[in-house]
Amino acid sequence: MSKVEQTLSLIKPDAVERNLEEEIKQFFIKSGFKITKQKKVKLEKKDAEIFYKVHETKPFYNDLCEYLSSGPIVAMILEKVDAVSENRKVMGATDPNKADEGTIRKKYGLSIDKNSVHGSDSIENANKEINFFFKT
Ligand code: CMP
User: Fold this and answer.
1) What is the pLDDT along the chain (136 residues), one digit of tens a residue?
2) Which site among 46, 102, 103, 122 is 20 to 30 Å from 93 CA-CA?
3) Which domains does the chain have, with CATH numbers?
4) In the structure, which protein residues have their CB atom closer than 6 angstroms to any atom of ligand 1?
């Protein structure tokens, strides 16, 4: 059954750098998400390595961690019924060139690396990622 969930969303350095922070937040709000917590941070590379640990064996891991720690990002907790899968729908495919019209990555993404947003891919990872940024 559908239930209200929380997921972790990041507005990545390429989007913050282009002043798209408010536009992307509005995109989520218009799509029915509540932003229940948010903060702007700049990660150290070692923090990015922890955040993206699931990708540590991938050839793009080092560049990915360099990139995520290259400038300020906005971390948000998004809340909605089925938030994890709903967020993945509004973000669109990882590669903006393959993302559907009307998605965030299609509209704002520059490349597979500079794809403007990150979203948790499962409830389990959402809990881990929320804890990473918002542990009290
Ligand atoms: P994200 O959803 O933040 O999760 C991992 C990121 O790795 C992904 O978005 C992409 O920006 C980045 N990435 C770079 N190269 C690849 C690739 N070949 N396949 C998947 N993700 C990639």
Assistant:
1) 688 999 999 999 999 999 999 999 999 999 999 999 999 999 999 999 999 999 999 999 999 999 999 999 999 999 999 999 999 999 999 999 999 999 999 999 999 999 999 999 999 999 999 999 998 6
2) 46
3) 4-133 (3.30.70.141)
4) 55, 60, 64, 94, 112-113, 115, 118
C-alpha 55, offset from chain centre: 15
CA distance linking residue 46 with residue 120, whole number of Å: 20
Compute, in angstroms, the gap from residue 94 CA to the centroid of ligand 1.
6
Q: What residue's CA is closest to ligand 1, atom 4? A: 118
Q: Which of 20, 103, 118, 133 is catalytic?
A: 118
**pTM (predicted TM-score):** 0.97
CA neighbours closer than 13 Å in the CB half-sphere of residue 75: 19
